[in-house]
Amino acid sequence: MDPNFQTAEALTACLRSGELTSVDLTDAAIARIERDDKAINAICVPDFDRARAAARDADEARARGEDRPLLGIPVTVKESYDVAGLPTTWGVPEHRDYVPAEDALQVSRLRDAGAVILGKTNVPVGLQDIQSRNDIYGTTNNPWDHSRTPGGSSGGSSAALAAGFGALSIGSDIGGSLRTPAHFCGIYAHKPTLGLLPSRGMVAPPAPALPVDLDLAVVGPMARSARDLMLLFDVMAGPDPLTHGMAHTLALPPARRERLGDFRVLILDDHPYIPTGAAVRAGVNRVADALAGSGARVERHSSLLPDLTEAAILYAQLWFSGVTGRFPAERYEQLVQHVAGLSEDDQSLDAVRMRGGAFSHRDWVQANDRREAHRHGWRQFFAEFDVVVCPITPTPAFPHELNPSLGERLIDIDGVSHPFIDQFVWAGLATMPGLPATAVPAGRSAEGLPVGVQLVGPMFEDRTPLRLAELLEREIGGFQAPE
Q1: Per residue in 26-43, pLDDT tens?
Q2: Per-residue b or e along 3-20, where b marks 16 or more CB atoms closer than 10 Å to that residue's CB
Q3: Residue limits of the Amidase domain (predicted)?
Q4: Which of 332, 348, 378 is the last residue of a domain?
């Protein structure tokens, strides 16, 4: 048995039975990384000495009778999380020497659960791409095809999982940064309900690791199985003890359904702003067929669905308003002047994003009011449905894109070029209103590349899409190691 591709659940069973030790698992993971990561470049900051020490401590703890959720399980952490004693750069060269003194809250929760941290995984500059490349650590390649990206910004984590470098990882998401890498690498990831998982210590350097309520952005788990995803979600969940944890405890509703055939599902594979490629459409249909074949209620249209065009516009406005809020004054003024010169007839998503970037606070409040109307629309929708099944991006993993400007890039969808950044509308479907979304494998393209879909659920009912992910894994299969 190669432990490097086993689930955390299976490895825990081996640890409990004494078949393997944490030292065995950690040494095997390190050996695989040292053998294979030269070609993939997923682990940008290894921490092998401390990992081996943590593995020895885990074995000693188990010998004393301890049994924590991740005791002795090798994991990785996205580079953007603070890990005491390791650099946190967010891929920005001027921060290459920044080393935090304390762990991020989620890293502390991994350690408290007994996990063995192998190291940190690669990211794009400032986490602002769906590739994973920067001038400090270089480019991360997709384990399925080294000429293609594993996604971003949690692409190092997805590549690590697909390559067998640890059983679990943690990432973050504002523009699909958990879901897109999962889709591109054939693994699982969960974008939680906005605000559900605390993000303290997942902050761009050199900002202090303070508790904040982020808009749109979340942290979340990544895994090679749906049950492992739920396991790691439970480790990460719960309010920050410095803020909401002073007054609140976690009490999430159970999954709405326990049987595949009991789910009520809306299938979406068309968006008004961008077409869906044949490979991704086939993945969506594969999930739809599995649901219908199990007796689930499967529909492709609903008058209750909030307007996708307005949703995409709101997402673009809110997202770029947050991005430009930290621009230097000179750069922001340049943007304002650029927006002033836009034609009123230009209603492209690019123009929408630019105008959002120049929002006043009054503009933002008005957009936020419209978002609240969408959230209420989703509440009404989820009174009749349990989950939406839809694409994550329009295509499988694309070849490495060298142009650093997202606005100048194009994405090829079945032989036709489209604005690269417009594909983010599918990520925004869940991100704008703050809904939970679980990325699951849904087959492979004709070229043999992984294809995933997202299962979007009701706010704070994260266990519903997570449960559906588990049931679909049983029905259509899940992660497969790259060939």
Answers
A1: 999 999 999 999 999 999
A2: bbbbbbebbbebbeeeeb
A3: 24-464
A4: 378
Q: Do 446 and 361 have their domain in common?
A: no
pLDDT tens by residue, 404-457 = 999 999 999 999 999 999 999 999 999 999 999 999 999 999 999 999 999 999
Cα torsion 230, 232, 236, 237 to 10°: value is 10
Name beta bridge partners: 450. Answer: 444
pLDDT recorded at residue 1: 73
45, 191: one domain: yes
Segment 346-375, tens digit of pLDDT = 999 999 999 999 999 999 999 999 999 999
- Among residues 354, 378, 402, the one where a domain terminates is 378
Quick one: what percent of the chain has pLDDT higher than 70?
100
Tell me: do 463 and 374 sit in the same domain: no
352 with 461, same domain: the answer is no
Asked about 78 being catalytic, the answer comes back as yes
Residue in 80, 132, 172, 177 annotated catalytic: 177
Predicted pLDDT of residue 483: 83
The helix (run of H) or strand (run of E) holding residue 451 is: strand 450-456
- Does 186 map to a domain? yes
- Domain range for 141: 3-240+254-260+437-476
Residues 303-337: pLDDT tens digits?
999 999 999 999 999 999 999 988 999 999 999 99
Mean pLDDT of 98-127: 98
Is beta strand 74-78 parallel, antiparallel or unpaired with respect to 168-173? parallel
Residue 201 inside a domain? The answer is yes
Three-class SS of residue 58?
helix
> Is residue 86 located within the same domain as residue 166?
yes
User: How is residue 389 written in tokens?
Assistant: 């099944």
The pLDDT value recorded for residue 181 is 98
Name the domain count of the chain.
2
Q: Where residue 37 sits, what CATH number does that domain have?
A: 3.90.1300.10
Whether residues 15 and 134 fall in one domain: yes
Is 348 an active-site residue?
A: no
Is residue 174 one of the residues assigned to a domain? yes
Q: Which residue has the tokens 């690019």?
A: 350
Residues 6+ apart with CB under 8 A from 50: 85, 117
Are residues 97 and 230 located together in one domain of the fold?
yes
444 shares a domain with 370: no
Which of 78, 154, 157, 172 is catalytic? The answer is: 78
**Which listed residue (22, 80, 132, 153) is catalytic?**
153
Give me the residues paired with residue 119 across strands: 46
